[in-house]
Specification:
Residues 275-482 form the Carbohydrate kinase FGGY C-terminal domain. By secondary structure, this protein is α+β, with helices and mostly antiparallel strands. 35% of the residues lie in helices and 22% in strands. The strands form 6 sheets. The protein has a 7-stranded mixed sheet with strand order 1-4-3-2-7-15-14, with helices on both faces. The radius of gyration is 22 Å and the shape is globular.
Amino acid sequence: MAAVGTTTAGDGAHAAPGAAMIAVDIGASSGRVIVGRLGPGGAGRPGRLEMEIVHRFPNGVTEIDGTLHWDARSLQREVTDGLKAAAAVVRESGERVVSIGIDTWAVDYGLLDADGELVGPPHAYRDGRTEPVIDRVHAAIAPERLYAIGGLQFLPFNTVYQLAAEPDLAGLRALMIPDLLAYWLTGAERTEETNASTTALFDAREVAWSAEVFEAIGVPQVFADLIAPGEAYGTLLPEVAAETGLDPDVRVVAVGSHDTASAVAAVPAEDREFAYVSSGTWSLVGLELDEPVLTEASRRANFTNERGVDGTIRYLQNVGGLWLLQECTRTWAEEGRERPLADLLAAAAALPAGGPVVDANSPEFIAPGGMPARLRAAVESDGGTLAAAGAAAASADAGAVDAEQAATVRCIMDSLAAGYAASLRQASELSGKRPEVLHIVGGGSQNALLCQLTADATGLPVLAGPVEATAQGNLLVQARAAGLLTGGLAELRAAVAADPVRYEPAGS
């Protein structure tokens, strides 16, 4: 297992020595179940957070009758298997599990009937079912008013549009995906705040559901009452405890259930003058603020105000992320052109600067399938060509990577870096906050080419890491809820301030 940082132990209000926590961290393409521990402090020596991944599983969308869905029941089974594995590991070490925390992606939800049963597989945000209702929603409540209430950037898959696309919500209740998994563990129906803030049905100032928005779009308020990170949904249902081998008094604790909220909570920042990119399937690019920015200028710039841990505001934009690269490599594998990712990135790095870029956040890149062709078409529609850039790869040490692949990967990396830089410039102008350093956390922090190009594009030093920020943020909130830690975000972040890799802007 890997130690990931240090922090000060708390008063142990809920947890005895030998306490362990379980983080369930699920993204759009995979999930993990992780055991976390915080060693004892004292005598001037802080405790030390350790993590051990005990279960991994795939995730992805499934097409059913022409629409895209998540297999929530499969996720439930994988979570159960992961909890079984965690229980066995902790039992063998003589420890005791005190809590479980769950984080996933945002905006999507499951619908429950009057008996509390799931009515069908939840729709996936990449499905196009919302397109016909967007204009109808905006006719019912103007985008300006929608933003003034919730401060959420326009994305065609925001929950407000998904609910408006539902044929009939009478008698149904809705739970966001992490809340649905928590419901299956505890029987409690609650909605965690950081995920609620991604729906465009949430009042950013009042920290409450917006009756005005629900009434305007003509749907009932189907979501459960709110719960804040650190509060508990409840303890395990007897049947869940029996199946997993966990004690029935194990608490399921709300963390930053939107995975980005957990990731930002673990950004190893030493002060507040920082920017961040949570880089994974999506890239979440922004600043941490004390209050939302709900101005018309912010709306026109399409910035979002999402809640973070401890009532902070994640002022950010969604920028298309490593999804573009993931889809390209998937297509090339299907075509028999699979290449190691390290070779693809090395070939891309060998190409000269100044190649074509695309808008990585364009809706045309949301759906799966055919990504290399779509990127090529986007470049050509702007008067460029990937073929010309790719030709240079023939003279580079591209190895088995062909010219088209090298040019495509370089286009993705340049486009992401340019998107990050543009978002941060706007965020700074709109909020008045001037970051001095940029932290990249998540999977993209391992991508040296992306990190260096981002430093060059933003003019800011880039500190890369930790890779496991989301799981760490999840566990740190649990640790504080268990009384193993005390303090605010600064104290939590001290636990992961462990030697990030630094990239200086070119020419600095």
